[in-house]
Structures are given as structure tokens and as C-alpha cells.
Amino acid sequence: MSTVSIKRDLLNGLRDTEYRQAFNLENVYTTICFQLRALREQKGLSQAALGRKAKMAQERISILEDPNSETKPTLNTLLRLADAFDVGLDVRFIPFSLVIDRSTRTQFEALQVDSFDDEVDQIERDLNFEEKVDNAFKHAARPQLATGDASNPEKEKTAAKAQNPEVAASEKSEEPKMPPANTTEQPLAHGEAIYGREKIA
């Protein structure tokens, strides 16, 4: 069955209020179980090793990874596990469109998360890029602000030329050139006078 078909079936089921409530409960805890195991294997940790990092018994980790367990993790337990993995924890209300989309991405690779140390360099690069983009937009907006009239294109163009002489130079070089005047005299038709005077009958 295709992913679209799975989403369509899930949408049809979610139209029922009781189904939505039951699905919310099962989906949240099942996802936690699968992601906990995915993160543990991503870090190369045994249940006992993760238990030591999270200050929990190995048996507790085993229960948390079991989707059929009647014991459900508390928010405090999830925070302790997030600290053990050195990852963030995002708890928020979301639209069902996101629930449907995320519920079909159950591959272990999709559930894995880099630790802070693993992604901090990439975060820094992304911020530097965003900063450059912001500065570029601010620089481009300066001529418009200098005119005091953003609705007047001619004023904007004049201000841009004043701010950047290269703009004026490039615009001047693009002005259409008139063809040179033809200085060669052309023979006139019989009876036709020069400079538009009347033809001689």
C-alpha cells in the first residue's frame, strides 16, 4: 500500500471523534517507544548503558521501549532521556495534518536525532548564512528608505544611482545608440524636391 493510501485511510478514521482521541493516545506513546530505541541504537548504547546515563534501571529502559507496555513515560522521564541523549524535547499541540504526515514516517532513520555537539557546527553555519541574507536585504532596502517615497520608482532609481555609482554606469552603457547619420546623398526621384517641399508637377 502506498503512503498516500495509508494517509487516506487514516484521515477517514480520524473523522470519528472517538477514533481521534484513541489514536492520539496510542500514537504518542508508540512513537516515543520506537524513537527511544532508534536513538539508543544510533548512539550505539545498550539498554544498560542508556540506563546509566539517564539514571534508570535497565529494566525501566526495556519497558519504555515496549509499545505494548501498560506503563507510560511521564514528562519528567522524557526530559531525563533527552538529557541522556543530549537532544531537545519538543512538547506542543499540533494540527492533525502533521500527525498524519509524521505517523507514516516510521523508519528508524527518520526517528534518529543528532546530539547538540554533533550539529552545533551546522547550526553555526546556518546562522551565518541567515545573517548574510538579512544584511543583503537591509543593504538593498537602503536606497528605498533614503528616498522617503517607496511608491515612486524614479526616486528609488535615482537614490540607487547615488548609493552605487556602478548602477548609473551600467545603465548608461545600456542606453540605445542611434545609428550614424547617412551622409551619402541619395538620388531623388524625378520631380521630387529636397527637405519635404512640394513635388514639381
Describe the fold and architecture:
The relative contact order is 0.07. The model is unreliable at 178-201 (pLDDT under 50). The chain is built from ten helices and no strands. It has helices at 3-14, 17-42, 47-54, 58-64, 75-85, 96-103, 108-111, 116-147, 153-163, 165-173. By secondary structure, the protein is an all-alpha fold. The protein folds into two domains: 3-113, 434 Repressor (Amino-terminal Domain) (Orthogonal Bundle), CATH 1.10.260; 119-173. It is 64% helix and 0% strand.
Q: What would a concise description of this structure say?
A:
By secondary structure, this protein is mainly alpha-helical. The protein has two domains: 3-113, lambda repressor-like DNA-binding domains (434 Repressor (Amino-terminal Domain), Orthogonal Bundle), CATH 1.10.260.40; 119-173.
